[in-house]
Amino acid sequence: MTTTPQDLEAVAARAAAAAEPCAATTPVARARALVAVADAIADSSDELVEIAAAETGLTEVRLRGERARTTVQLRLFADVVLDGGYLDARIDVADDDFVLGRRPDVRRYLAPVGPVVNFAASNFPFAFSVAGGDTASALAAGCPVIVKGHSGHPLLSRRTAEIVAEALAGAGMPDGMFQLVTGQQEGIAILKDPRVMAGSFTGSIAAGRLLADVAAARPEPIPFFGELGSVNPVFVTQGALDERADEIAAGFVASVSGSAGQLCTKPGFVFVPSGHGLEPAIAAAAASVASHRLLNPRIAAAYSARRSEIVHAPGVRVVAEGIVRIDDDGQGWVTPTIVVVGAETLVAERDRLLDECFGPLSILVEYAAGTDLAGLVPMLFQGNLTATVHRGAAEEPAVLRDLVRVLAEHAGRVLFDGWPTGVAVTPAMQHGGPWPATTNDSSTSVGTAAIARFLRPVAYQGAPQALLPEPLRDANPWGVPQSIAGAGESIRWGASVS
């Protein structure tokens, strides 16, 4: 069932009414609420995993790991809230002797933007869905959250939303801090509502671009943080092959086939030196992978069509054919497909080969000795979430400097000697990148910096203490870090530079 227009209005009204009370919650209260949500999800793990497995076809092992990641994210943001550094509280004390004339008292911090709409993802029914990272970071910022549930796991979405809402209410959080809506057009309608102040999304380029355009076309445009498409190129040097060819082949197949390749960080293109000799090991590893159900019939049909297009493209040779079996319910069962092309062929056929294939398919790209890999990158790739380099221990860093520099310009995260799947939930993680990886390449949807998406800077000049927000008061009742520029300091600016 989709949310009715009357219910959408009520949802927007409750979220708007909750904005000020949510922003006013103390760090301790908000952190306890996030932990309460994490505890409630953990306590319901068996029930939620059973529902998720039935709706998505993902394995129990994968889902339990993802459930754990979801609760870890919530607990991580509880610590972020308690620390308070994310508020970036800055205080310029009034200064009659300021070098440019009298300076007034100016105080700046990051305030919650207000109600946020989070569009849940299909391929991460826990970690990027109802109680996922976008929800956790927005709640941590002090914003009411409206989740647009994904049609691929509706029962899980509803049950998770019930658990989250009950936990927040039990922790004393304001009514309207968290709500769920369903339906594609209903999601667009709530994004257009003038009471919504930001949006977040994980999914396809087409859907993400549509929603980003909706957010930008509003009479008062709002920020929209979409994670869209990524092919995550990998570059393997001869030195790396000489040291660990079998390890690279096994890691490659594992990364491509994990969760049936339905991961935004799956390596779509792996560049290897001509004469690499990896094909037997790759074929053997791929043949040992059991068939896995794709998320839903729509994704199965899209994968089957895209796979056929790639396999039958000029100059493509199949290393591991894989299978696609469609059952009576339209669900697709697959094993990995690996193909190989020359670098020249990829350049010539880039309009046909470069688009993302969402599923367990990847393309080996053979390059000749002396190939300018750094020069290939801008010819072939737009923005990506990740880019990876496998190198030998004895290789001179200077040889790879240009390649690494170019990859950093085209990706949000550059990895060395590993595989991009299995994103770590850590403070320093960057999960974003230039278009079309995301709609905003200065943001991340994983890691503690994700909270910044749902905050905006506000400065107070000459304000009395009683009218300042708590993080900017001299008494600092929330106990947050404050950066204070005292009177008389300006005359010494630059003096420490030799």
Neighbour order of strands in the largest sheet: 11-14-15-9-8-16-17
Structural class, please?
A: alpha/beta
Task: Please tell me the total number of domains.
Answer: 2
Task: Give the uncertain stretches in residue-range form.
Answer: none
**CATH top level class name of the largest domain:** Alpha Beta
Q: What's the CATH architecture of the largest domain?
A: 3-Layer(aba) Sandwich
Report the strand count: 19
State the fourth-level CATH superfamily of the largest domain. Answer: Aldehyde Dehydrogenase, Chain A, domain 1
CATH topology of the largest domain: Aldehyde Dehydrogenase, Chain A, domain 1
End-to-end gap: 68 Å
**Strand content of the residues, in percent?**
15-25%
Number of helices: 15
Q: Give average pLDDT, whole number.
A: 97
Q: Please state the CA-atom Rg, rounded to the nearest Å.
A: 25 Å
Gross morphology is globular
Largest sheet, if any? 7 strands, mixed
Helix content: 25-40%
Domain Aldehyde dehydrogenase: 4-368
Protein name: Aldehyde dehydrogenase (NADP(+))
Keywords: Oxidoreductase
Organism: Luethyella okanaganae
